[in-house]
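Appendix B: a complete holo record

For completeness, this appendix reproduces one full record from the ligand-bound portion of the collection. The bound molecule is flavin mononucleotide. The inputs are the chain sequence and the ligand SMILES; the output is the full three-dimensional arrangement of the complex, encoded as C-alpha cells. No fields have been trimmed.
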Amino acid sequence: MIISLALTNTVLISTPSPLPPPHPIVLGISGASGLLYAVRTIKFLLRAEYAIELVASKATYQVWQAEQNIRMPAQMSKQEQFWREQAQEWGGQLTCHAAANVGARIASGSFRTLGMVVIPCSMSTVAKIANGLSSDLLERTADVHLKERRPLVIVPRETPFSLIHLRNLTTLAEAGTHVVPAIPAWYHHPQTIEDLVDFVVARALDQLGIDCMSLQRWQGAEP
Ligand SMILES: Cc1cc2nc3c(=O)[nH]c(=O)nc-3n(C[C@H](O)[C@H](O)[C@H](O)COP(=O)(O)O)c2cc1C
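The structure of the chain with flavin mononucleotide bound, as generated:
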C-alpha cells in the first residue's frame, strides 16, 4: 500500500513535458501599395521567433518592381532568402508558398495556425475573400481561417474607398475579420517612415494578441 502510494505520488509530481512550439502565423501579401508593411511584419515576427507561413499574390511581383525597382524571385527556393534580406532578419522560421499552389498545407483547415494577417491587402483581394473565391492560395487560406473561425486580420490600402470597397469590407467585418486599415496615428511622434509603418503593423498584430514591438502606446493625456 505504502509502495503504491509512493509510486502514485511520483507520477503526480513528475515534471511536465515542455510546451509544444506555438502554431505558425500565416502572412498573406497582396498587390497593394506599401510592401514595407509586409517587410516590417516579417521582421518583428521572426525577431520574436515566430514561425511564418508566407504567401504573396502574383501582383506583389509587379508592385515590388514599381515601388522599389526590385525584382522578386519567381523561384520559391529563393523567396525565403529574398524576404529575409528585405527584413534583415535571420531568426525564426519562414516558409514561403507559391500563390498558385492551392494544395499547400496552409490551404487545409487541418493545419493549425495562430491566425492570418493579409498585409498590405488590395481591394481585389478584399473582394475575392469577401466573396469566397479561393482562386489562389492566399484567398483559399483566408477562406479557411474564416470557416475555421480563426483570427483573420486584413490591412487594406486604398484611397479613396468606393462604395463597392466599403461593402466588401463590411462583409468581411460581419464575417469576423479584423479590419485594420493602413492608417497610422501621430500621437507617438513618428520620426521616420518606419515609425509610421510600425504603428500599423503593431495594431494589426494586436488583433492576434501578439505584442512583439516596442510601440509607444497611449498612456493618457496630461490633465
Ligand atoms: C504599383 C502598384 C500599386 C498598387 N497599389 C494598390 C493599392 O494600394 N491598393 C489596391 O487595392 N490595389 C493596388 N494596385 C492594384 C493591384 O495590384 C491589382 O488590383 C491586382 O490585381 C491585385 O491583385 P491581388 O489582390 O491578387 O494581389 C496597385 C498596383 C500597382 C502596380
